[in-house]
Design a protein that fits this description.
The chain is an alpha/beta fold and about 325 residues long. The chain folds into two domains: about 190 residues, Alpha-Beta Complex (inorganic pyrophosphatase (n-terminal core)); about 120 residues, Diaminopimelate Epimerase, Chain A, domain 1 (Roll). The protein is built from twelve helices and eleven strands. The strands form two sheets. Strands 6-7-8-9-11-10 form a six-stranded mixed sheet. A hairpin with a 4-residue loop joins strand 6 and strand 7. Helix 2 runs parallel beside helix 3. The longest helix has 17 residues. Bound molecules: adenosine monophosphate. Adenosine monophosphate binds next to strand 10 and strand 11.
Amino acid sequence: MLLIDQILGWIQKYETIIIHRHVRPDPDALGSQGGLACLIRDNFPGKKVYAVGEDAESLRFLLPMDAPDDAAYAGALVIVCDTANRERISDARFGKGSRLIKIDHHPVVDSYGDPEWVDTSSSSASEMIASIYRTHPELKMTDSAARLLFAGIVGDTGRFQFSNVTPETFLTAAELIKHPFGRQAFFNDLYRRKLALARLNGYVLQHFTLTEEGVGFIKLPLDLIRSFNLESSDASLLVNCFSDVENLKAWVLFSEEKDSIRARLRSKGPVINRIAEIYHGGGHPLAAGATVHSWEEADRMIADLRTLCRQEPLQMNSSEKDA
Ligand code: AMP
């Protein structure tokens, strides 16, 4: 509460506020960034507010990016949402303002803000932004803000199924859907995918490996991805496509980019961000990522996952838990 008030205090003091988020934005990056931009625009009229970062074609429907010139940063307040470390901030100008604030729900790997508001118990950065509204009922929330924040929560909780969902998450979502932002159209937009991606999804389901330790993996070389008329960023969207297979404990999807290989790791229990960190990546205990530079390095990551999962019992299914 104190931190929220401090941040609102800084927002009040600055005339220009520029909001950043992480590279390769997901719905929570854009939802928290756009939700905060709405909060400021709708409640502190007269301020110049910019949301910046590279464009993400498939999520453009959520939030168009602004393009302020360098001069806008002089004397500006810069707020970075949903980004644990400096290297992952989209738009390198984030250090050019006169104050830098971090709002994030990832475990801290790099303290770059002053102040920093980090809440790892929150499902999403969007839920954190929504909590500013919830703790300050005098702030007006528009339908656009509600839509963006709902998008971020839906994205980072996998439609309310992951363990990061708390009673607070549902209470927040309940408040957000009171706004008539066109939920059905929004879901259609968020989960629409290209036919080519559906075909690649079929390929991944046919070809992923499931080891005896419960590790799932798929390696997608760039020439294979291109043979489906797709790019690496499309292929990486398939990270959860075999997550429902029995006996799976943790898994990784490798999608090759021009000069490196992106690894997206997920887990049902074993803590995988420590493995991502070995490869200079990071993330949450059950959802992490890293970049590797050869298929041999990818194989080492798979071996590390197998060692980790060998020691972990398979999670009980829900009927066993209830018994
Ligand atoms: P992703 O698979 O991109 O959705 O990433 C899952 C989580 O891991 C994200 O919340 C990121 O914080 C983190 N992450 C992904 N890639 C990296 C990376 N290269 N370095 C640090 N953290 C990462």
